[in-house]
Each structure stands twice: as structure tokens, then as C-alpha cells.
Amino acid sequence: MMESSPNQKNQFAVRTLSDARPAKGRSAVTNGKRLHVVAPGDTAWARRFRDILSEIISDIGREGLSEGQRQLARRCATIAIQCEKMEGEAAAGHEINIDVYGQLVDRLGRAFQRLGLKRQARDITPDPLAYARESGDEATA
User: Fold this and answer.
1) Domain for residue 94, yes or no?
2) pLDDT-based confidence at 5, cuts 50/70/90?
3) Structural domain of 128
4) CA 138 → CA 125, 127, 129, 134, 135, distances in Å?
5) 66 band by pLDDT with thresholds 50, 70 and 90
6) 24, 30, 72, 74: least surrounded by Cβ within 10 Å?
7) Mean pLDDT score, 31-42
8) Does 52 reside within a domain?
9) 3-class DSSP state for residue 85?
10) How far is the C-alpha of 4 from the C-alpha of 6, rounded, in Å?
11) 32-57: b or e for each residue (b if 16 or more CB lie within 10 Å)?
12) In-domain check, residue 129
């Protein structure tokens, strides 16, 4: 059985196994000391990866995640980072490979579905009374 350690540095990477080998026999990733086998350093993209991964895991629920769910969440964060890099290039006026971008977006959507995340529409219907008050304030200004 896998459970989270209360004193963990990386709340989504640390798990203790009931039949766990000694910590020296496991990788730093398994022990929860690092997110990657080779630490990427403290770059803006490394921080963004951690942020996205944390948000994805929060969306699916931190408790009781299987190793497969954790792995898939990491893949989603990786794809999301690549999409954001490409979006930044496009916003800067640089040409991007729109086919590759579209494939990444599609794969990200399918990976989110596999994790059980669903697209949920937000209710953006304005409150009629608030709208009337705001419209009235603008008319008197």
C-alpha cells in the first residue's frame, strides 16, 4: 500500500511502501527527494513543470494515487510545458510547427481523459441584478 509521508519535501513524489527496500537501495526519485533522475536545476521551466504537476495532481486528488496515475500526470506536465514553449514562440512572432503543436494538444487532452479529468464548462452567465446595477452606474457617470 502506498501512502504519503507527512514530512515530505515533494508532496506528490514521496510514497512509502509496506514492503519497501532500504532507502539506499532506491533511487532519489522513488524516495521523493527529486522529481527527475538527473536534477534539471532551478530553471524557469523546471519551476513551471513542478507547478503544473502540482496542479494536475491537485485536480485528480492527492490521496491514493497509483504509480500509473503519478506517471501519467508527469507526462501531462511534460506535454503542457512543450505546448507553453511553442505558444511563447508563436506569441513572439516566430513560426511554429502547427501540426506538432496540434498533436501535442490532442495527446494532452487524451492523457487528461485517461487520468479522469473532464472538461467542465464554467457558468459565466452574469447575475441580472448585478448587471443592471453596473449598467446604471455607467449611465450616471
Assistant:
1) yes
2) very low
3) 40-140
4) 20, 17, 14, 6, 5
5) confident
6) 24
7) 64
8) yes
9) helix
10) 6
11) bbbbeeeeeeeeeeeeebbebbbebb
12) yes
